[in-house]
């Protein structure tokens, strides 16, 4: 899958996968993903997406995982720091 393949991917459709109805056997197990850490950041991202297929819905062992993101400028680090302050 080349860079042009990613531009044709319908990421909005990938986001819409329903974890209640998806067949877990069709999902990639994230434990099987091996990203070459020697690649530049952009190529690592492409390599991950190439392997995972749907970065919004995948398996971790027998568990189906669905992720989503809010439309915000806050980073994961910002959120973690905020959470730790609340504890």
What is the molecular shape?
Answer: globular
Percent of residues in helical segments?
Answer: 25-40%
Helix and strand element order: HHHEEH
Radius of gyration: 15 Å
Largest sheet: 2 strands, antiparallel
> Alpha-carbon distance between the termini?
44 Å
Low-confidence stretches: none
Overall pLDDT = 86
Report strand order across the widest sheet.
1-2
Number of helices: 4
Structural class: mainly alpha
| Structure summary, number of beta strands | 2
Short description:
With 87 residues, this protein is mainly α. Helices cover 39% and strands 9% of the residues.
Explain what the structure shows.
The chain has 87 residues and is mostly helical. Helix content is 39%, strand content 9%. The protein has helices spanning 3-8, 11-15, 41-52, 76-86; strands at residues 57-60, 63-66. Strands 1-2 form a two-stranded antiparallel sheet. A hairpin with a 2-residue loop joins strand 1 and strand 2 (63-66). It is globular. It starts with a helix and ends with a helix.
